[in-house]
Amino acid sequence: MASPGSRTKTTDVWSLPQDEQLIGQRINDALPYSGWLCSHPGPKGLHQVHLHRQLGEALRCGGRQAFLLLPGGAQAPEDVLVDDALVPRSDIGHSAVVQFLRSRRLQDGEGEAFEAGRLAVRWFEQEVGPERHQLLTEESSLVWKALRAATRPAIVENAQGRRISGMRIGPAAHDLVTGSGMLLTRGGIQRLHLGCSSGSMTPRRRSLRSSLPRWKPTTRSQTNS
Known about the structure:
The chain is α+β, with helices and mostly antiparallel strands. Helices cover 32% and strands 29% of the residues.
């Protein structure tokens, strides 16, 4: 649940490295002065943090997640090394960060599953003021528009057949899941099937539909006989 006064948005995303590259490029196109902070495991100060131009670079440097500073072009913290390709605007400090969390393949007692990552952002309106709040709203909208351009809707079904929407899946991840029949998860033990996505159907649903008998209309002469 969002805290009072906070502006929060989060979307679960299934992606592979090829998808991450595309998502990052779309976001860079929308916010050309933006940069991504790498994130390393362990306590703060244990590893050097860098501000990278590309999402893929930040993920390769750090690991499973990276953070986009908002507004675009905002100054990085003083202890961060900034990529030479970035020219942050010296008069703007960051007021929010967008988290990109990678997907991952899991193996447990239930078998292999593909766990969603996410794109998420949060800030507190009363802390940033009305003008900065408006700017963050506009720029976060551009980020999610870029996400939608780089991915497709992911409508999933749980074991009871209930459909859940609002997630996204990258093209490469979609091909992996539909080609292998791999189950999905949003965390926890629940397993999900990928259902309709941008008008397509999984092989499981195609075979179900093809097995149904075709209805043939009865002619008027047959009805009256």
